[in-house]
Amino acid sequence: MWVASVHIHHAELRVGLAIAAEASDLANRVGDPHVLSRFHLVLGFGHLYLGDLAVARLHLEEGLALYVPERDRAKAARYGYDSCMAHHSWLGFVLWYQGLPDQALHHEEKAVAAARAASHPLSEAWALSYAAFVHHLRGEVTRCLERAQATLALATQQMLPHFTAQALAPFGWALVKGGQAEEGLARLRSAIDRDHAMAQRVRRLRSLSLLAEACLETVRIEEGLSAAREGLAETEETKVRFYEAELNRLEGELLLAVGEPDQEQAEASFRKAITIARRQSAHSWELRAATSLARLFVRQGKSEEARGVLAPVHSWFTEGFDTPDLKGAKALLDQLA
Question: Rounded to 5 degrees, what angle do the CA atoms 67, 73, 77 make?
């Protein structure tokens, strides 16, 4: 389990997934549901990184179903983390990508509750840091900042450097969004440096995406483009594709923010982001990319094309209408109507 996990987090996905699949078959034959649950977890986040969201969700839901609190809660200290917490944490990510932002938040709250029920500080730091990322994805700046600060405080108290590093990216993003640009950008750059030092190639991809978004917010266009393109190059090298659509979208937005906007290349980036998101059934990424492309079409006076791009994606959603992404898309559609 640990060997598979290390390979996956170092962006050696196929190797890690092969080890996890073989070991899960062995755990199934031995008949240990708790160990099998943990291998479902590894297979779940490994497939998420590949962009195989449906497969990831299946493994995570199967692993969570194997957890029995009375039997397994006390095993957190032995195995390093509470399995229930971990499955809920990862399901939060998968469900947000799949276009279910309210269900995603529900799972993150369940993860925090499970960690506290297990009285396991490392599990709590894990759950809080993942909740911060989901609040980031939902565009909730204050809640992201609160969860990131709570992670940093707990990780410092318990001497958990992995989670200190993990919380820095959403913490920095929230600071930038809250108007503290210099401090926030410094935290984001520090997160990327720590990811590199810890050989956390997968996490570094996510940090680069947050930095690109923060640079767009603060009109640091060259640094933002550099971060987005570094992330895209890393994506091609590693085949870790869970931020591929968003990195392409951010590249397009940054290209529109330069002194002489490159609308043709920006459109190509948005269309590529939409194609990738559709292939992964990542409806939340698709909504963002479709909104970006629709705004470009409005800028060009192509109102019908804008509505044709955005309306079908927006109509898919059944929840999360209070989040900035969906409110922004709805406002644009109302304008077009």
Answer: 125
